[in-house]
Amino acid sequence: MAKKIDIEDLKAVAGELNELMDLDPAIKLTQGKDDLEKDVIKAGKLLEPGDELSKKATACLTALGFEVPGGTEEEEEEEVEEKKAALKRKPKGKAKAKEVEEEEEEEVIEEEAEEEVIEGDEFDDMDRAALKKYIATNSLDVKVFKGDTDDAIRDKIREVADVEVEEEEENTGDEFDEMDRSALKKYIASNSLDVKVFKGDSDDAIRDKIRATTPKASKKGGSPKRGGKAKNATPEKTRAEVFNDLMKEGGGTRDELIAGMHKNYKGGESSEAEAQFQVGLFLRLLDTMGYVKTDKDGKYSLKK
User: Which ranges are annotated Basic residues under compositional bias (predicted)?
Assistant: First the structure.
């Protein structure tokens, strides 16, 4: 049953049909509603599938009981299909976005991992044979098993070296350890040391600068009092003093400095592993402060 349509809508549809189909004679827009409906339906029957009507005209003709080619039902079906297709595409879009987020997270993790990389030491360049030879040469209490990886062997060596250094550091010290910031600065001024103290420097950093430049401190219990002499033999030099002497004598390559440290500190009683550790520590410290330079042969020397 055809629905009732407002005459104004009929006139609008009739005008659209007149223009679209170039009707001759054209539908009279001034006639009564019933006649107008009949003329609109007649004109609608002349429509071809390729003719494009506005939604309003299509709805009006459908309401009059006329099946419009490519009409409302087909448009609705197309809209439904488009919506279905959009729904199918939407999860893919989410999945793609999720993949992008995961990639970004992986990049962040990789960057953090790069930041966590720790500066290596001389053991990193040694293969398995060199590591085992190092253990034997230095009489280290390290057992190597067939199942140990090269990195595992390196870690064992480092643990032993760190323990030896820690034990000796507990029993050694110098006069700077008991000085506060004010006393350290006074010591620098009194001895005209080429040491710059910055606000951001910790007390330990100042002590290290003094020791690295012109260390004069001896081990605790071995330094003579002011105005007096030591009752026993000359106190043994600290690691800093030994290293300072080596650098004043012209420095040398890393291996030469390690050999000198091993020979001169405690008369060679300390391990070579400790010498390697201490030389590496002093070189990094001096390099950071800008007091050391290297030539093309890898020889370290103090800057003038």
Answer: 86-95, 217-229
